[in-house]
């Protein structure tokens, strides 16, 4: 597993072996179910792209319904490694939906990969992890897509499209059960109410009892239950005017954060041992209205989106049996977006697209932290113990609170506007040569209102044995009431040159600017208020202090982080090498400045997003798809990323002193160097038997190395997992056996530190089960 190149060599060799006659890959005329992944017809369209998606001068992966079904893709995290250089770890809770593409990602605040569902954007990655049901296709565009998609597209874009009732009519239902208490039920119905109106409705329920046991309680730490549905109404108002209205709902209730302490010396992970509740629940409602007017010359599209989500997270932030501190964070989001796009709809050499995009994202966050008995004794009281050591102090200061509640209320509204244009000129100078150029002017304003009031009960003792005398009458409560804002302007150019050797073989070169907006950290509220309380209290006793009381840094400076920018250069080749073999090869180089990196605050009690100097990322991506026989298809997807710091100094507070380490040349944390996926799919139609069809699929996925820290001292080696699915069909009934991580590979899914103590979440163990599906 430590040599991913070996798997690629074997797979390429295997793909090249078979030699088939043309009639061996023909489909029978009366066979409406049989469909091969290499030639599966998937309708693709775009409201603003001036190139056909399949001949786009860029790195594109298209996941068809067949691929989604065979590979057991139930959520976005299941496409990890199948899409080269894309990694979406499955850890923590659905709140933490980090996506990494080519070394670019966001683990906490913000996002670097955009998500669109039926052309409407999801403006917060806290909503990215949801059930994928009745998906018509998934498109992944790797590399900066800022010209058409804006500031959230620095790493790439994921477009998800759902089925229209005009594309499919009927009813589908399935029930699945497996080990670890897994149970899933899905049902959907599609019908045309008339020749111009279609309706689809679907619902699902999914649960499991958990994979990891909390040794403190003896119960599973990560059980999960989710449910939801989607309603879609399509209306062909006139032959040239259409409307589509969709609404979806998703509910999740889960145990969360199954982290065990990690021993750096032995490499072992201790059992989970959490004494305070850790769970997460979330409600998401998404609505989308799309209007399209099409003529012989142009297509005009309006896409209006509204999303509401509300969540509640309880976290034992010390992740052990001590009662140090807990967090109860809630979020409430109301997000509106509107995009008007018009593009040419002719067969001329020149194609054009113009658009206007606007959004408003209203996000309210409550993040109160409660310091408990052990936290007051071990974290807060030592500050005053150092003061008490001064011989000039007439009394000793002690914290009298049994628990200290530190509130934090944040309103972080953001709104933005963008104008964009893209042009493509085909057959420039010579036939087959084309150029695509675009530019986007992007403006965004972010605001932060931070309100909090807290007071620590401080007491004085004349001797360790004497009772403490309350001193809270000598100082007022600490109050934070801050309003601040930031404005961001950015020009996002992109240019691509493509040469088509044949209609199905072309090469291209692309240069594009990537951009991720700045913002505000709301996770550091406890540290900010703790510093403010200490300052206010010490100021009240300044005459007794051994030195000058240092005022905390302005919150506007502490909480804010700057935009991240990059230049991306890409060279690619895409071809149908033979009638049975398709391939794509991409080389890329990315230069990043002001890289946004998640790091822990000096106290170790939280994490923030900060700018981390400069970085570079370069690598390669390979995709091969082959028809090995009339029943057997195969594919190989491989990505290599070498993402390192060019200029970054890592700082860490140890025993009250800041230690600095130059990390130039170190690998960027959390992004894998290699992603590998090798898949086989077998589909056999059977005539004159008790079954009508036999299907089987298997996929090997490999990921690694993943470095967990800026120092690169802790990492996960390259590891592999095996998924498989076998099924039979009789009439309208399908019976499938499925398995995930059948090798029961033990691997690290996530690493982090709390109070300078390392913790690990392990990957999910072997899973297997049975599914019954009916379509009629």
Task: Summarize the structure in words.
With 776 residues, the protein is mainly beta. 8% of the residues lie in helices and 54% in strands. The chain has six helices and 49 strands. The strands form ten sheets. The protein has a 25-stranded antiparallel beta sheet that branches. It has a five-stranded mixed beta sheet with strand order 1-7-8-5-6. Residues 1-39 have low confidence and may be disordered.
**Beta-strand residue percentage:** over 45%
- As residue ranges, the low-confidence spans are 1-39
Shape: globular
- Strand tally is 49
> Structural class of the secondary structure composition?
mainly beta
Oligomeric form of this entry?
single chain
Most strands sheet: 25 strands, antiparallel
Could you tell me the radius of gyration in angstroms? 28 Å
**Distinct helical segment count:** 6
What attributes characterize this protein structure?
mainly beta, 6 helices, disordered N terminus, 776 residues, 25-stranded antiparallel β-sheet
Quick recap of the structure?
The chain is mainly beta and 776 residues long. Residues 1-39 have low confidence and may be disordered.
